[in-house]
Design brief:
Two copies of one chain form a homodimer.
Chain A: E1 22-27, E2 34-39, E3 42-45, H1 46-52, H2 58-61, H3 67-71, H4 74-89, H5 94-97, E4 101-103, E5 107-110, E6 118-121, H6 125-135, E7 152-155, E8 160-162, E9 167-168, E10 171-174, E11 183-186, E12 190-191, E13 194-200, H7 215-218, E14 219-226, E15 229-230, H8 231-237, E16 251-253, E17 258-259, E18 267-268, E19 290-291, E20 294-299, E21 302-305, H9 316-324, E22 335-337, H10 352-355, E23 363-365, E24 368-370, E25 378-386, E26 392-403
Parallel strand pairs in A: 6-22, 8-16, 9-26
Antiparallel strand pairs in A: 1-2, 1-5, 2-3, 3-4, 6-7, 10-11, 12-15, 13-14, 13-22, 14-16, 14-17, 18-19, 20-21, 20-25, 23-24, 25-26
Keywords (chains A, B): Calcium, Hydrolase, Magnesium, Metal-binding, Phenylalanine catabolism, Tyrosine catabolism
Pathway (chains A, B): Amino-acid degradation; L-phenylalanine degradation; acetoacetate and fumarate from L-phenylalanine: step 6/6
Domain Fumarylacetoacetase N-terminal (chains A, B): 18-112
Chain lengths: 408, 408
């Protein structure tokens, strides 16, 4: 320990006591993953602190994954969060807590929860419109259903990986319209999708819908998410049953899950609807469920986009209500993502397909032009939300570096 | 026990020592689910037998789900199967084993494994052609990619349920082409999809493809599967990202998982390919991976179809190779299904959409006409495969009865 205590954060630290995201880490020289809470540039061993301070919730925190805490439900989430804030800020706990803080650069961060089902939505009107213009230049950019329901599909839960995991360029079939037959090889159009992921804590019962108003009883928190996409593989495979291998090779999530209770200042009204919604999706009278998140996308440290999450047409509450309206049940660990976040301006687009207009307009980066990702490129998504008293709440970053395709 | 031992099966019993499917059951008056093996009309408590007979594999069998056995890999599967066959057929074990056999009609059967990811394919040329003709009457029935790759998509693992679970008619949005806007309510076009599901045992490593030749090292066994489908919900939602709520309310699987080693006499060559396949899918020189399964579909006890699985264009081995060719990893408990099994003849079609040609030609059942399923209808899928010496191997049936939609 230096003379400067890790409990003394600079004013306005975006990982201060108003934030307190959860993760799972292993300290240097140990091999037992455990629940941690980020505080400044340190990680609190939350289970050890709970045991040391006699918390009634120690059993939820002395775990190798967040799932038991997530399953415990909102009253428990609020009680645990209040306890952790007290441990970190009450001078009376200082001596007990300080030894349980590990410098962030000395720990290994893990996938923080066991993913049950993964669903990806398509909720940005700007993204869906751009993609429609690129893929169907002679048709209406939005399909007729787009403004009536949040379009989504199931992705592969087993290949959700934590930030920092290398992403191997996928092999697969691709066929340009002019090619007589498909060819096989590494994807030549590997892309980012900058998204926000929502993590379900409390499960629901098969056959029962989760209404808009129950969103915060079920959703534990959120993460940043990069839904890596091989555009050439996707374009050839996706008719008629949707994306499959163009997406299933990897989906990266941040190591930190931000509790919804850390985002009280970030709730905002979603955009005005220009179609009447069916009652189960109609949020005109509901508590605003948009979120004012300011996202950034960087390639090799160079910012290429700043997508605003507040402009998303469909909210996460609507996505949850839609996903369960047919009676489908939720499990602890279900992950659902927003879809690519794109704003109305060119520099607010959340994927290279849009940023380079399908490769027509390459990006000029300090290390050369980019249409799609090259081997060795490192992509980093970051975001912040407004916090109390003018502060910011940082969301955990999600990074991934492209490794060359496997050959032979 | 009657004077007739449950170990003495009639000649040719389709659940004889050549079959030995695995399930999970709870005996009457007990509350601990455990691994069972079906033998005739009884279930062997496999973990208790393993313990009683000193099996080195008792830890794999004294479990509430099949996943530990499934994860153990093919040499263990073969050793365990050989042991169980010996326990059931060697007169020296009779006294120990007989008390561990429970009459099937006195036990509760459970979902036999924890489902990891669920993928549904679309592998019957007859089914895909019929569906294409119904939905796109003016276009080519098969999309250009269909004969180059086994089309598939991810479904919802959390709503896979065991045979016998009631299926609640889903609510959702549906919109006929002539309707000005979508309406909300119970699906009016609720359908069956008669399929075969393949259950992954041994996992694979992220980034590594599973070749055609490794199919039997990874796949533990198969089940019958009914991928219930709400055609009206599906038709409105599925462009451009594929089926979602039209499928995710329930997928029923049989309570019994048939080991691949029980199907030695059922392997058969798949249909001739009329397009050259890329090397990773080319099975011209491979061990035949088609399966001669004879399926039946019954509504309220009345057989409406007899789909032949041997005619499926894409084999399960090709599906597994395709699903992993982009580096996606397999987990123990991954379930992938064939897609609706339909043969070339009208009475071989595996769903009502085809059997009634989208409702145009109702079926005449003893209890009235059917276009799609009505509340109270019970659907049962059964199947058998050729076994040794002219015997049959029965696959476990999968049933489900339609319960009325939830209102209000």
């Amino acid at each position: 320990m230096s003379e400067h205590s890790p409990l003394d954060l600079a004013a306005g630290d975006p990982y201060g006591p108003h934030n307190l995201p959860y993760g799972v880490f292993t300290p240097t020289g140990d091999d037992r993953p455990r629940v941690g809470v980020r505080y400044g540039d340190h990680v609190l061993d939350a289970g050890a602190a709970a045991a040391a301070l006699g918390s009634p919730h120690a059993d939820l925190l002395r775990q190798p994954v967040l799932n038991p805490l997530m399953a415990a439900g909102r009253p428990a989430w609020q009680a645990v969060r209040a306890g952790i804030r007290e441990w970190l800020t009450d001078p009376g706990h200082r001596a007990a807590v300080e030894p349980l803080l590990h410098p962030l650069d000395g720990v290994t961060l893990h996938l923080p929860f066991e993913v049950a089902d993964y669903v990806d939505f398509y909720a940005s009107e700007h993204h869906a419109t751009n993609v429609g213009r690129i893929f169907r230049p002679d048709g209406e950019p939005l399909t007729p259903n787009w403004k009536h329901l949040p379009i989504g599909y199931h992705g592969r839960a087993g290949t959700v990986v934590v930030s920092g995991t290398p992403v191997v360029r996928p092999n697969g079939q691709r066929k340009a319209p002019a090619d007589p037959a498909p060819s096989f090889g590494p994807s030549l159009r590997l892309d980012i999708e900058a998204e926000v992921g929502f993590v379900v804590g409390a499960p629901s019962v098969l056959g029962e819908q989760v209404p808009l108003s129950a969103f915060r009883d079920h959703v534990f928190g959120l993460c940043l998410l990069n839904d890596w996409s091989a555009r050439d593989i996707q374009a050839w495979e996706y008719v008629p049953l949707g994306p499959f291998l163009g997406k299933s090779f990897a989906t990266s999530v941040s190591a930190w899950i931000t509790p919804l209770d850390a985002l009280e200042q970030a709730w905002t009204a979603p955009p005005a609807r220009d179609r009447a919604l069916l009652p189960y999706l109609d949020d005109a009278e509901a508590v605003p469920a948009g979120l004012d998140l300011h996202m950034s996308v960087a390639i090799n440290g160079h910012t290429v986009s700043n997508p605003p999450f507040s402009g998303m047409y469909w909210t996460a509450a609507q996505q949850l209500a839609h996903m369960t309206v047919n009676g489908a049940s939720l499990r602890t660990g279900d992950l659902f993502a927003s879809g690519t976040v794109s704003g109305p301006e060119p520099e607010q687009r959340g994927c290279l397909l849009e940023l380079t207009w399908s490769g027509r307009d390459p990006l000029e980066l300090p290390d050369g032009k980019r249409t799609f990702l090259e081997d060795g490129d490192e992509v980093t998504l970051t975001a912040w939300a407004p916090g109390p008293d003018g502060s910011r709440v940082a969301l955990g970053e999600v990074t991934g570096r492209i490794a060359p395709a496997v050959t032979g």
